[in-house]
Amino acid sequence: MKKVFVNGYGSIGSRITSFLKDDPEITVFGIGKYSPDEKVTDAISRGLNVYVPERKLDDFSNYKISGTIESALDECDLVIDAAPGGHGYKNKKNLYEPKNIPAIYQGGESTVGEESVSDLLFNSRANYDHALGKKHVMQGSCNVTGMGRILEPLREKFGNELVRFDVTLVRRWADIEQTEKNVSDTIEMTEKPHHGDDVKLYFGKDAPLYVRAIKVPTRQMHLHIMDIRFKETAPKPSQIHELFADEFGVATLWTAKGTKDIRDYAQNMGFNFTDTNMIHIHANMTTSIGDTVQLMYSDDQTGIVIPENHMLLQAMLFDKSYEEAFAHTESIFHMKEKKQKLQENFAKNN
Length: 350
Ligand SMILES: NC(=O)c1ccc[n+]([C@@H]2O[C@H](COP(=O)([O-])OP(=O)(O)OC[C@H]3O[C@@H](n4cnc5c(N)ncnc54)[C@H](OP(=O)(O)O)[C@@H]3O)[C@@H](O)[C@H]2O)c1
Prior knowledge:
Blueprint: E1 2-7, H1 11-20, E2 26-32, H2 38-45, E3 50-52, E4 67-68, H3 69-74, E5 78-81, H4 87-96, E6 103-105, E7 121-122, H5 124-127, E8 136-139, H6 142-158, E9 162-172, E10 188-190, H7 195-203, E11 209-216, E12 222-230, H8 237-243, E13 250-253, H9 259-268, E14 279-282, E15 287-289, E16 292-299, H10 305-318, H11 322-333, H12 335-345
Bound molecules: NADP nicotinamide-adenine-dinucleotide phosphate (NAP).
The site of NADP nicotinamide-adenine-dinucleotide phosphate has 27 residues, from helix 1 and helix 4.
Enzyme class: oxidoreductase
Organism: Candidatus Nitrosomarinus catalinensis
Active site: 142 (nucleophile)
């Protein structure tokens, strides 16, 4: 049984931990906490061992912690870093490399420049095999992962017929559980968003992909507005939708009025953390005009990267083939079933 440590227990770390506990091939050795708050008690009540940085031991004297993060890492086979953006790089230098432990990083880190955590940005749909045998890999962020789920199938099907992709990312302000974060009443423009460059790391550096981003006051998912230009007349919307009928982690919905409808449905259905773990094509919004397809899809910001982390873990820890890893991830996340339920609930009105 392989032992995994999850360093950071926020939106991403708590989700990853929860799913890993359902994986019979893995033991969650423990989680790393940095602030002595109610989440320590919460984690312990869920049966998790909580570890803290050696320098902060005194701050946690009122909690029943299991030891230091430094000592826990000595016992583990792999660490999933779920730290706030930028801290993963510091952890790599100060902890993971000195202890020679393989590590997965999240999308707030970088794969270029001086503070790069890895030369590989993972997207299971595009480059699963590249992660086999790797020691340090970054999982793409939620927006970057979502774009991959659309772009790869399009490229496989239409190849040279494609001319360019123009994408506007409408990003959520904060996550649902980040109650400490105010959602400001403004539309914020993002200068030089990293997402396009990140996608090109797996989609090809010369890919004709142009990305703009804004942030809007909502906690309910991201929405991507994508224009896909073709050399000749663009395919019909139905041909685009057909392409995603059997795609992992892509649901095609017709009657969701907004992103909150989907989140509410996930909550009513008892989906873990109210996540769908996927993107949702808003099929009623797809149009085909001349050489261009206009597409909109929403992206479950917190959920989408969790099965991806699980796929990545299997490549790095067990050297599994894509097919084996996919089947195992599916047995834990039940993505096919969730997709089907979503599609039935938001089916086209006749
Ligand atoms: N939220 C999303 O929708 C989303 C989606 C995709 C990717 N990501 C990426 O995932 C990463 C984590 O984001 P998040 O939203 O989960 O953040 P978050 O909710 O703010 O949680 C961050 C966690 O990291 C812990 N932490 C603080 N300092 C740390 C350190 N030096 N090393 C390790 N952990 C540390 C914090 O512990 P304490 O609470 O104990 O201080 C907290 O539990 C970021 O790279 C982010 O860009 C986020």
